[in-house]
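Hi support team,

I've been running sequence recovery on a batch of backbones for a student project. Most finish fine, but this one hangs at about 90% for roughly twenty minutes before it completes. I'm not sure whether the input is malformed or the queue is just slow. I've pasted the structure tokens below so you can try to reproduce it. Let me know if you need the job ID as well.

Thanks,
M.K.
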């Protein structure tokens, strides 16, 4: 169930407005398999999300005795359709000692509030709610067990106060916020890649959903992230700063263990999101669209961590050097500087006389 809620948390436009209801309904429907199906084999749970259309589809299917036979110990019904209709009423259950009969009834109210879809089939009948409207049941070819399919609109808030289950929903977001407040969010554990916008957008939505429940700044830990695309950093930190505002971003978000080169790119994309590009700047005249290769005099500044200002031509910091690993035949050659982490205006290939001795990655400063 946590995996389902996390899926919604990352892809819904307003996850806080739908997760409590979806979590409640999914728990109730899956519990019915364990409590009432009397199946010899486990049920099947399926979830699919369409982030572009903001739709979530859930399906729970079992091969148990079916709703009509399950209710037979306490209620007599004339058909499978009548049995399904009874099961969707509040307080109807096969045994009050086992359950209160609120699961399917509450799920029905949630779907109506959301204007979503609900299909429940058992035996030779299927009950339908389409776009929040009760369509009753129809006869279908007979099937073993029971199936429930839910279609939620993630762009439509579900107010549980409009249902009889108000106040009884579980608190997945609250638990996630408590864990994040204690340990922060490890970026390497939250995304599959730091090279594209989609994983960053997913993590940003999660952060926006958790922040209202946090009393202290949220730690975003970049330990283990040795490189990140500017598009990833822009989608995650640039847009996060733009949505929160600069002062709130600085106050509510704390970045830790970020590689200096990644931090430099992050500073550029955040500043560009917050302040844009100066009119007539050299950056605009060149028509550049590469925030990872900035013109240092053209962009506003933003700093996730202390950094040195770009020195002038007469104040350039000395290049850092390190030995170059060589084969035994090369040990007598002089060591060659690798020119790493130069100021932006010095980002150029090293002198031609050194190039053949350097790793290929050192020929460009990105």
């Amino acid at each position: 169930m946590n995996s389902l809620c996390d899926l919604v948390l990352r892809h819904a436009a307003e996850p806080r407005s739908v997760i409590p209801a979806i979590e409640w309904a999914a728990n109730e429907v899956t519990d019915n398999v364990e409590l009432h199906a009397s199946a010899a084999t486990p049920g099947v749970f399926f979830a699919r999300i369409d982030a572009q259309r903001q739709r979530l589809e859930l399906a729970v299917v079992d091969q148990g005795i079916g709703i009509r036979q399950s209710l037979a110990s306490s209620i007599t019904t004339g058909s499978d359709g009548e049995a399904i209709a009874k099961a969707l009423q509040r307080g109807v259950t096969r045994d009050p000692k086992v359950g209160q009969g609120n699961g399917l009834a509450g799920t029905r109210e949630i779907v109506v509030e959301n204007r979503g879809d609900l299909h429940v089939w058992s035996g030779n009948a299927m009950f339908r709610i389409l776009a929040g409207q009760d369509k009753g049941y129809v006869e279908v070819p007979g099937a073993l067990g029971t199936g429930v399919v839910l279609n939620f609109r993630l762009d439509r808030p579900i107010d549980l106060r409009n249902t009889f289950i108000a106040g009884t929903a579980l608190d997945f977001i609250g638990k996630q916020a408590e864990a994040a407040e204690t340990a922060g969010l490890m970026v390497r554990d939250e995304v599959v890649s730091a090279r594209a916008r989609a994983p960053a957008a997913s993590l940003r939505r999660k952060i926006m959903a958790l922040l209202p429940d946090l009393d202290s700044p949220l730690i975003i830990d970049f330990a283990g992230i040795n490189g990140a695309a500017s598009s990833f950093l822009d989608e995650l930190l640039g847009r996060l700063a733009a949505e929160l505002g600069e002062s709130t971003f600085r106050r509510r978000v704390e970045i830790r263990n970020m590689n200096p080169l990644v931090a430099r790119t992050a500073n550029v994309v955040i500043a560009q999101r917050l302040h844009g590009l100066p009119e007539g700047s050299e950056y605009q005249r060149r028509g550049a669209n590469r925030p990872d290769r900035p013109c240092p005099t053209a962009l506003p500044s933003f700093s996730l961590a202390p950094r040195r200002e770009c020195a002038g031509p007469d104040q350039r910091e000395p290049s850092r050097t390190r030995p170059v690993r060589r084969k035994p035949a090369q040990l007598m050659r002089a060591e060659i500087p690798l020119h790493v982490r130069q100021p932006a205006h010095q980002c150029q290939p090293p002198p031609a006389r050194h190039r053949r001795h350097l790793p290929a990655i050192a020929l460009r400063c990105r």
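--
Follow-up from support: It reproduced on our side and the slowdown came from queue contention, not your input. The two ends are 43 Å apart (CA to CA). No action needed from you.
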